[in-house]
Write a structure and sequence with these properties.
Blueprint: H1 2-6, E1 23-28, H2 32-43, E2 48-52, H3 58-62, H4 65-82, H5 98-112, H6 118-123, E3 127-137, E4 140-145, E5 150-160, E6 164-166, H7 174-177, H8 182-189, E7 198-202, H9 206-217, E8 221-226, H10 237-249, E9 253-256, E10 259-266, E11 269-276, E12 279-285, E13 287-290, E14 294-296, E15 327-329, H11 340-356, E16 370-373, E17 378-383, H12 386-391, E18 397-402, H13 407-411, E19 418-423, E20 430-437, H14 440-443, H15 445-452, H16 457-461, H17 472-484, H18 488-502
Parallel strand pairs: 1-2, 1-5, 2-3, 5-15, 7-8, 7-13, 8-9
Antiparallel strand pairs: 3-4, 4-5, 6-14, 10-11, 11-12, 16-17, 17-20, 18-19, 19-20
Bound molecules: flavin-adenine dinucleotide.
The site of flavin-adenine dinucleotide has 38 residues, from α2, β2, α3, α4 and β3.
Length: 503
């Protein structure tokens, strides 16, 4: 059965193959994965059509990375102004002009918009169609254009890049109280002059933590229920503990091991009921953001009719091909990651395999995948965490360098955090790195490069890092590892050598 899945061609048998094709590639969805796919196809002279039902740029530009990072920046500045005395300045306690903050978020989106625009992609050689695409057979895509017309295109290959959407838990009453998601939040906040007074952010994952901290810093009273024992469950405990402490210092009420049960309105007051240790209680709120995960967009555009398995993600093989070798998937819809950079990374493999797979196919390479959560402090990771190493029974050594030792972190008042490196016992080979601290998402890049190209800690130690920078933390961690691995025999030899030289 499984081998059948891998055999290209077989599932096509029940469909009539067109004699000629209108396109080499049709890409469905113009988010991070779709844009990169279309770009690569056009750059390699393929005739490519990119279909987008809604907004060019998808989640990242319109509802995800861009608006959230813009909000985080304003929230951080508001926090620094409030704590300016930490820097010898007068603290600024005044009310946050929330409408201006949100207006800036939308200005930032507008400023980046041209990068993903129809005009830009058209100029790059991509045909962009605005409409809803549906697969009719393995080679035909029907597009219900936003203009009202319908068009059918035959194509040698298709890339499914339809992304994901916020998952809303089916709590009794949630529809009655109303809720926001990352999809609706930014537009909804446009009309506000003040941050929500009492905000519940449901979910302790990266999106929930970023939003909870930002809104708290912008003046909301934030409660963050999370049913897991801790926030940022994917990260090691030491990392998630530091973020929790920081969120709490910002006033977020972090409620771990709290399961949401239902929502309702009593006497005009909205509430959410949560359970903790067998007891239930109600938390009143003015706004609720559901941030409990994102579900791939899998249905309604023909995958089911073609018999392509859509369980949690579109089922693909190592080459990102579905049951049909000419229909591939990339980005959030394909999993296993939900990041813009992994969507773009997969897009390369999907496009090359779609266009040139009959000559040579490439397996999507998930060897070294980094990511970051942009809380303050940021948490960045590449490779294994300690928990994962333990789960996999892999022997490892830990080197942990604390940022309160780093000159630049001290001068910047950014001395919370650490660089933690997991290595193969007795060797400088890096298994994984977690960085918690200011600009951790940038600092991790050096380790990503090292892991990708098989460079060990000795190579990082042998590289000049500018003083005083945060990047020196990476070298310090490597130095710490080096000191812990000095050969006692060599030291004894040196001792004798110097004694001999002294005469
Ligand atoms: C609040 C938030 C913050 C985030 N922050 C980060 C971050 O800091 N860093 C990071 O790496 N990632 C972040 N992400 C995740 C990132 O946004 C996604 O991983 C990325 O956008 C996925 O890209 P994609 O191309 O797979 O899908 P999407 O960007 O969702 O694009 C899919 C597109 O397909 C279109 N579409 C769907 N079906 C059809 C159809 N049948 N016909 C035509 N068009 C269709 C949709 O309209 C959509 O525009 C964040 C996400 C959120 C929600």
């Amino acid at each position: 059965m499984f081998l059948d899945f891998l055999k290209p061609g077989k599932p096509h048998a029940r469909w009539k193959r067109p004699d000629k094709f209108d396109r080499n590639l049709v890409v469905i969805g113009a988010g991070s994965a779709g844009l990169v796919s279309a770009y690569i196809a056009a750059a390699t002279k393929a005739k490519v059509t990119l279909v987008e039902a809604h907004k060019m740029g998808g989640d990242c530009l319109n509802y995800g990375c861009v608006p959230s990072k813009a909000l985080i920046r304003s929230a951080k500045l508001a926090h620094q102004m409030r704590h300016a005395d930490n820097y010898g300045l007068t603290p600024h306690q005044s009310q946050v002009p929330f409408a201006d903050v949100i207006a800036r978020v939308h200005r930032v989106i507008a400023e980046i918009e041209p990068h993903d625009s129809i005009e830009r992609y058209t100029s790059l050689g991509v045909e962009v169609m605005q409409g809803y695409a549906r697969l009719i057979d393995p080679w035909t895509v029907e597009i219900a254009l936003n203009s009202g017309e319908t068009q059918r295109l035959t194509t040698r290959a298709v890339i499914i890049a339809t992304g994901a959407q916020p998952f809303v838990p089916s709590l009794p009453g949630i529809e009655d109280v109303g809720y926001l998601t990352s999809d609706t939040l930014w537009e909804h906040m446009k009309d506000r002059t003040e941050a929500p007074r009492r905000l519940v952010v449901l979910g302790g994952g990266p999106i929930g933590c970023e939003l909870a901290q930002s809104f708290a810093r912008l003046g909301s009273e934030v409660t963050q229920p999370e049913m897991a024992p801790r926030i940022l469950m994917r990260e090691d405990e030491d990392a998630s503990d530091l973020v929790r402490a920081s969120l709490e210092a910002d006033g977020v009420r972090v409620l771990t091991r709290h399961t949401a049960l239902s929502c309702g309105v009593t006497d005009g007051r909205k509430w959410i009921e949560v359970e903790h240790g067998g007891e239930t209680r109600r938390i009143e709120f003015d706004d609720l953001i559901a941030a409990v995960g994102r579900a791939p967009r899998l249905r309604g555009f023909g995958l089911e009719d073609l018999g392509i398995k859509v369980d949690r993600v579109v089922e693909t093989n190592a080459y990102l091909q579905t049951l049909y070798s000419n229909i591939l998937a990339a980005g959030d819809v394909a999993g296993p990651y939900q990041f813009t950079h992994t969507a773009g990374h997969q897009a390369w493999f999907a496009t090359v395999n779609a266009l040139f797979g009959d000559i040579k196919r490439f397996k999507a390479d998930y060897g070294v995948i980094p990511w970051a959560t942009f809380t303050d402090p940021e948490v960045a990771r590449v490779g294994l965490s300690e928990a994962e190493a333990k789960e996999q029974n892999l022997p490892y050594e830990v080197t942990r360098y604390e940022l309160d030792d780093l000159d630049r972190a001290i001068t910047d008042g950014a001395d919370r955090g650490f660089v933690k490196v997991l290595t193969v016992p007795g060797k400088d080979k890096i298994l994984g790195v977690t960085i918690v601290g200011e600009h951790a998402g940038d600092l991790i890049a050096e380790f990503v490069l090292a892991m990708k190209h098989g460079l060990g800690l000795n190579k990082i130690l042998g590289t000049i890092h500018i003083y005083p920078t945060l990047a020196e933390a990476n070298k310090m961690a490597a130095g710490l590892w080096g000191r812990n691995h000095i050969s006692p025999r060599l030291m004894a030899l040196l001792d004798r050598f110097h004694a001999w030289r002294r005469g």
